[in-house]
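seq:
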Amino acid sequence: MTNFIPDEPVIHTTAQHDEELARAEQAVAQLAESRNNRWYPRFHIASNGGWINDPNGLCFYKGRWHVFYQLHPYGTQWGPMHWGHVSSADMLTWQREPIAFAPSLEEEKDGVFSGSAVIGNDGEINFYYTGHRWANGADNTGGDWQVQMLAQPNDDGLKSFTKRGMIIDCPTNQVDHHYRDPKVWKTGDTWYMTFGVSSADKRGQMWLFTSDDMVHWIYDRVLFEHPDKNVFMLECPDFFPLIDKDGNEKWVIGFSAMGAEANGYMNRNVNNAGYMIGTWKPGESFKPETEFRLWDWGHNYYAPQSFNDGSRQLMYGWMSPFEQPIPMQADGWCGNLTLPREITLGADGDVHTAPAAEMLGLRSATQDWGSVSVSHNSVLRLERDAQCVELELSIDLTSTSAERTGVRVHATEDGSFTYIAYDQQTKRVVIDRQTAYAGDRGYRAAPVSDAEVSTGRLDLRIFVDRGCVEVYVNGGKQVLSSYSYAGEGERAVELVSESGSTSYSSVRVHQLKSIGLE
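struct:
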């Protein structure tokens, strides 16, 4: 491996960066002035205006939760990336912070790309990210030139930063231009960094580096290469340990695979984010013990990032608007993050991702319907106008004969709605958007195992925001996240039973509060 570790990184002046940040703040404010809120989220994180994508720099630092995200402040389409920033003392009420990073150095002149945050031995925090340039100096026709960068905060509130510049250069003769999204952690006395790479022969890989001081890094090995030759890049990689039911340490490797082909219900989106479970020890490559599995089966989920808050592994994802049309782009904003999810290894040996416990604090009022029966081919209205609610539905499978049963959300007078249902024939939970008011159509389907069906019960926890839904199946064994653009007027919630009757052992509707970012 050619030596591509730079000399001592230097501290850069902030004058140009401050100027770029001020321009970006003004641009976002202008978009926010005319923003249309018809689909703007009340309890999901989104920018005030402009385009957002990947969550970045997730951390709990000196008493506050911090979420950074990729931001294009000058429009509602993808463009030169900045880092937006929100923070919270309780993960429920959030406040907007100054934009953290803007392109201001030569190595990042076309974008400050994704990265992570990690607290060092001294209790101080470092931010690692990718500096992006177009290789031809103009556009993407000549590919990318990407390197890894370091920044450090100037204050405990993480409101301003000093960039220390490039810490890992790109060996362009060994890389097919994709080389980004650093994730850093500590095992033993050594710091490790991995990031996504497209090798010279266009194979999706994660490279591994080591460091003693978090500043100077040495190439170690290829941590993982995707076995599918169609996968040419592993974006937004993640890597962390979990303990299984027997007390054994397992490692979860996560990535957003670019190039995987659709296969049945799998990989239906343009690119798909998932994980594998296996083992790893320092001095070795990752050894997978499972196949690639999706983090989320919905239409709009990508680029998740996790972090450990000292007791839990938490994750945010980006609800990516993969396919045109993208109606919210006309409204002055585009894109939001998912709710935070806690990652655990279940007794079944698989990863579960349930909403963080703090999300119970979003509830402001509850209507408990108790047990409910919906007769053959019938519809039962639960809410006349529900813009922001959480539904808890427990289906008694032993007393249910319906071929499909579930709930319509965002049901408006024009006949449009999004349908979330359990399909008894395929044993899958479905988000069906064939009658959605606007945006991309189609359906997505998450599996329900035979073991789950054999319990005779199916639990659905459904979060409905103004323009999106998240569906948690059986406590987070599977999840589906999709945009759902409601039509004009009141937005009803209705239980539906198709070709048979449905018995619910429990139905509850919770009204949800705003997180304060509107």
